[in-house]
Amino acid sequence: MITVRAPATSANLGSGFDVFGVAFDRPADIIRVERAEQTTIDITGVGSQYIPTDPDANTVGAVVDALDAPAHIEIDKGVRPASGLGSSAASAAGAAVALNELYNRGLSRSELVPIAAEGEAVVSGTAHADNVAPSILGGFTIATADGVESVSTDISLVACLPEIAVSTRDARRVVPETAQMAEVVETVGNAATLAVGMCRGDPDLVGRGMDDPLVTPARAELITGYDAVREAAVDAGATGVTVSGAGPSVLAVCRARDQRAVGSAMLTAFDDHEVDARVYQTQVSDGATIL
């Protein structure tokens, strides 16, 4: 048996739609795989009752097919589905790393990214790598059609997950199909600022670079209380706030000393809108780990 811990992630980071991602140190999925003649899937943990165990309908099924690696797969979900924290990606990423090891396929971590991305297509309709890349590689990642780049960085994050469900498919439907050139230029500049901030470990640059006039405003409309949560986080010391992935989680960047205050402020703001929520104080961390 091979056991892998695959971390939660946040994609987009505001200005890096479908390109940027970061790995968290928590929460995470635990994936266990054993060789078998036919693939079977057992799922436990948070939200497990909503996840299909049919390999054709689960993200890990596509990974099994791509690696030609049938197995009995146990997934202990630590990352809630429909959270904006890369839940489906964590399962796909963990399965890719585990099955590659189990069957001695010899693929590099970078080579496993597009394989895990095929699993994402099962739930979102698109084989995007912005979540699976950081879950496999760790750090801050930039995923493009030409490949993936990753860098380790020391940035403190707060992810606040409200008890609201926003599906990836619904969140993609509200993405604008056109944009004004001025908005494109602003977004490119912010994305460049964010990338430099990640490389420097500078929370001020990262926070400034998260601003996004294109996708985030549309997705924020799907999250009850988003504007109040964002304002509360900034007032408590956050250097930047945005929607985490497809939502409904809200992601804040801050200094380590401000994490507790930022998380508390975000919880209070959601509570003011009669929305229950939980908070994760985390760091940008390593990717999937074989235990």
Automatic annotation (TrEMBL):
<dbReference type="InterPro" id="IPR020568">
    <property type="entry name" value="Ribosomal_Su5_D2-typ_SF"/>
</dbReference>
<dbReference type="InterPro" id="IPR013750">
    <property type="entry name" value="GHMP_kinase_C_dom"/>
</dbReference>
<keyword id="KW-0547">Nucleotide-binding</keyword>
<feature type="binding site">
    <location>
        <begin position="80"/>
        <end position="90"/>
    </location>
    <ligand>
        <name>ATP</name>
    </ligand>
</feature>
<comment type="function">
    <text>Catalyzes the ATP-dependent phosphorylation of L-homoserine to L-homoserine phosphate.</text>
</comment>
<protein>
    <recommendedName>
        <fullName>Homoserine kinase</fullName>
        <ecNumber>2.7.1.39</ecNumber>
    </recommendedName>
</protein>
<dbReference type="InterPro" id="IPR006204">
    <property type="entry name" value="GHMP_kinase_N_dom"/>
</dbReference>
<dbReference type="Pfam" id="PF08544">
    <property type="entry name" value="GHMP_kinases_C"/>
</dbReference>
<feature type="domain" description="GHMP kinase C-terminal">
    <location>
        <begin position="196"/>
        <end position="268"/>
    </location>
</feature>
<dbReference type="InterPro" id="IPR036554">
    <property type="entry name" value="GHMP_kinase_C_sf"/>
</dbReference>
<dbReference type="GO" id="GO:0005524">
    <property type="term" value="F:ATP binding"/>
</dbReference>
<comment type="similarity">
    <text>Belongs to the GHMP kinase family. Homoserine kinase subfamily.</text>
</comment>
<keyword id="KW-0418">Kinase</keyword>
<keyword id="KW-0808">Transferase</keyword>
<dbReference type="GO" id="GO:0004413">
    <property type="term" value="F:homoserine kinase activity"/>
</dbReference>
<dbReference type="InterPro" id="IPR000870">
    <property type="entry name" value="Homoserine_kinase"/>
</dbReference>
<keyword id="KW-0028">Amino-acid biosynthesis</keyword>
<keyword id="KW-0791">Threonine biosynthesis</keyword>
<dbReference type="GO" id="GO:0005737">
    <property type="term" value="C:cytoplasm"/>
</dbReference>
<keyword id="KW-0067">ATP-binding</keyword>
<dbReference type="Pfam" id="PF00288">
    <property type="entry name" value="GHMP_kinases_N"/>
</dbReference>
<keyword id="KW-0963">Cytoplasm</keyword>
<dbReference type="GO" id="GO:0009088">
    <property type="term" value="P:threonine biosynthetic process"/>
</dbReference>
<dbReference type="InterPro" id="IPR014721">
    <property type="entry name" value="Ribsml_uS5_D2-typ_fold_subgr"/>
</dbReference>
<feature type="domain" description="GHMP kinase N-terminal">
    <location>
        <begin position="60"/>
        <end position="139"/>
    </location>
</feature>
<comment type="pathway">
    <text>Amino-acid biosynthesis; L-threonine biosynthesis; L-threonine from L-aspartate: step 4/5.</text>
</comment>
